[in-house]
Amino acid sequence: MIIDVSVNGIQRHLKSRNGDRLVDVLKKELGLSSLTADCLQGRCGKCLIFMDGRIVHSCLIPAFKARGSSIVTFEGIAKKPEVMDIEKAFQLTQTQPCSFCHTAKIMTIFDLLSRVPLPNEDDIVEALDMVPCPCSDPIGLIQAVKLAAELRNKRKFNREA
Ligand code: FES
Ligand code: FES
């Protein structure tokens, strides 16, 4: 079957077979390197995408359900200033994630700050829960997200002033 879908702003016609997961079709048809089909159970966060604006695990979505939707992957946001804010906050707080969860963390923080410009600790912990991370300091991460929010709001304010 052919799935018509917009991916990172480009209209695509993706080939899929019955039972295919969305993550597999996106990888196979478009070679998107930010996506990994790892746990396939919605736990590791390595397959996170935005689908019609909502962050979802693409390993849990049957490919046919994406028909007509608008998908954004990490590649679609990577150059946005909001992502630069997050990267800068990681650097300044010395919480740069390892390659295991780097992309997934950026996706979840990007999502959180788009919805909640000034998140409190509960908001941050809940958002980061999507990405299990055995090797980072949770307190440092909370500081990083707060700093990313500050940088983002400052940039926005300066532009709009
Ligand atoms: S592959 Fe692990 S959450 Fe989707
Ligand atoms: S920083 Fe290594 S798994 Fe998150």
Largest sheet: 5 strands, mixed
- Under CATH, the homologous superfamily of the largest domain reads [2Fe-2S]-binding domain
- Label the overall shape: globular
Secondary-structure arrangement, i.e. CATH architecture of the largest domain: Orthogonal Bundle
Number of helices: 6
Low-confidence stretches: none
Q: Determine the structural class based on helices, strands and strand pairing.
A: alpha+beta
Q: What is the chain-wise order of helices and strands?
A: EEHEEEHHHHH
In round numbers, the mean pLDDT is 94
The CATH topology of the largest domain turns out to be DNA polymerase, domain 1
Which strand order spans the largest sheet, edge to edge or round the barrel?
2-1-5-3-4
Give a brief outline of the structure:
With 161 residues, the protein is of the alpha+beta class. The protein has 2 domains: 2-76, Beta-grasp domain (Ubiquitin-like (UB roll), Roll), CATH 3.10.20.30; 81-160, Orthogonal Bundle (DNA polymerase, domain 1). 43% of the residues lie in helices and 14% in strands.
